[in-house]
Amino acid sequence: LVEAKDLILVDHEGQEWNMLLVHQNEEVYFLKGHWYDYADVYNLAVSDTVVIERIMKQEQNEIKDIGKAEVAVNTEYVIL
């Protein structure tokens, strides 16, 4: 059972990219989507996982800066 959320990455040019934030376990978070067309799994740094974990624990939408991109968490669902 893997928890995941839809999210939209907004790059520095304002382009929106539909992504998937996956929470595999207490230590593993990654993003999947076309924004990383050369590598669809992006391992976040420890400092980023803290931000992502806090966002994922909230039911409301929240936007946080990660590097040059904004992460908007929309909905929560489960991947079997």
UniProtKB/TrEMBL annotation:
Residues 1-77 form the TF-B3 domain. PROSITE patterns: B3. Keywords: DNA-binding, Nucleus, Transcription, Transcription regulation. It comes from the Eukaryota. It is found in: Nucleus. One of its GO terms (cellular component) is nucleus. GO terms for molecular function: DNA binding. SUPFAM superfamilies: DNA-binding pseudobarrel domain (SSF101936). InterPro entries: B3_DNA-bd, DNA-bd_pseudobarrel_sf. This is TF-B3 domain-containing protein. The lineage of its organism: Eukaryota, Viridiplantae, Streptophyta, Embryophyta, Tracheophyta.
